Amino acid sequence: MANGFSVTFRTMFRKSATESYPEQPVNFQPRYRGIHVLHRDENGLEKCVGCFLCAAACPANCIYIEAAENTDSNRISAGERYASVYNIDYSRCIFCGYCVEACPTDAITHGHGFELAPYDINSLVYRKEQMLEKDALKHSLPKAVAAR
Ligand code: SF4
Ligand code: SF4
Asked: Residue 99 maps to which CATH number?
């Protein structure tokens, strides 16, 4: 009893390690696997070439892609094709990272987004527009600058 209570009393006066989310930003380890980010190349084109390899590698079958041809007047990616639709269903994703491993163009990585607790399960299907990096330059800037 005395030993047990001594641990309690010692711990009572220690500084709390609790993160004050959402008042303060959460600290992530660099390799944390959160909501995916679809990247752009240095010219601002989408890196995804609609090859479906990520969807084939996904054990949860939660990636849905529709590919379309690039044309001279409408070039979206540097390859022959691009993903006109790219959805990930986060009600099924297990954040295994297999899609990231499978991608030949480094188009998809995990970001640090983690707020995935909605009341409507349908809103867990994220579309390309929600995951796409806004512009290539912003991504290459240090985080503190890019956040401005
Ligand atoms: S992290 Fe895993 S489960 Fe989620 S989309 Fe990628 S391959 Fe599928
Ligand atoms: S994210 Fe990568 S693996 Fe998936 S379709 Fe695009 S280029 Fe292919």
From this structure: 3.30.70.3270
Ligand with an atom nearest the CA of residue 67: 2
Predicted confidence at residue 145, as pLDDT, reads 37
67 lines ligand 2 (CB under 6 A): no
The predicted model gives 111-124 an average pLDDT of 94
Quote the CA–CA distance of 67 and 51 in Å, as a whole number: 8
In a domain, 13, yes or no: no
Above 80 in pLDDT, residue 17? no
Structural contact between residues 79 and 70, judged by C-beta atoms closer than 8 angstroms: yes
Q: Give, in order, the Cα–Cα distances in Å from 39 to each of 19, 68, 132.
A: 30, 18, 6
16: in domain: no
For the stretch 26-77, pLDDT in tens is 888 999 999 999 999 999 999 999 999 999 999 999 999 999 999 999 999 9
pLDDT band at 20 (very low <50, low <70, confident <90, very high): confident
Q: Whose CA is nearest to atom 4 of ligand 2?
A: 54
* Ligand 2 touching residue 131 (CB < 6 A): no
Domain count, the chain: 1
Residue range(s) defining the domain that contains residue 140: 32-146
